[in-house]
Amino acid sequence: MRPSLKAAVVGLTAALALGTLGTPAQATDPDPTAALNALLNPSLEDPVIALLPAFPMPYRPYNGPICASGDPQCIVDVIAEMKARLAPEAASCDHDAIFGLAYLRVTENVKAAADNGYFHDRKWLTQIDAVFAKKYFDTMDAWTAGNKTSVPHAWRIALQASDDRTMSGLGDFMLNMNAHINNDFPYVLEQVGLTAADGTTHKPDHNAYNDRLDSLYHPVFDEEAARFDPMFNKFDIGPVDDLVVSTIMRGWREMVWRHAEALAATRNIPLLRNAIQKEIEEYAAGQAQFIKLIPIFLAASSKNRDAFCSTHHG
């Protein structure tokens, strides 16, 4: 939200709170920003998400060529490739560097979490991470090679916006996150598997990463602002923006799991599977079109972005 719009939301939240109480405002009334933070707190979604049962799916062993062993070295290799790809993007202030940096920091965090025993099934998580990253690398390589028709619709919207420099840094971040999560992730989950060999669902590990993501938004936004776009973290009243992004990501990640279940359930039913694939593509593209309508995500909200980056990309 722009600061003025956010102030209006804060005011509206305060007015609703006061209306509920049925008393006039007093000097001791709670800070309306705190009230909005509580209202948007993504952790409020967690009990609901945890209660949404995974659809029973049969165990299917992962037989793909990427990180077949599930060795932790797979994530180390992914991080090395991400760094190698980010370096020239950052040096040239390519707008693709926004997501390149964010994705690198997320992957480093995944590795740290896995190293510390955060996930129940480290092998599965490692394979998910490696296959997911390879999907991104392949998309970027196809786009760079000019094979744009092979790139999914949501990704075409995101990467064309980067090439045309029509978005703010935050806008590029949102478009790329949407394309990679909503378009790519369902296929990755289906491919690697939704169910463990003992019949238990992997959904708890999928849900568990939501809290880790929450801890990343603020430092990543600050780093993006310091290196690429000074307005990246300026549309902020306290942690409200972090909360908004956290809430959006939780919703996206829950939708991703449901789409993955639908893909797995229709694996041998071509007609239905085609319908699910179309739904996934249209959903991701629709989210991208909506993102492009929000003023703070457009280039006009960060007019000095490229000039700033030329001396700060680091």
Automatic annotation (TrEMBL):
Signal peptide boundaries: 1-27
Keywords attached to this entry: Signal
Protein name as annotated: Uncharacterized protein
Organism: Nocardioides marmorisolisilvae
Superkingdom: Bacteria
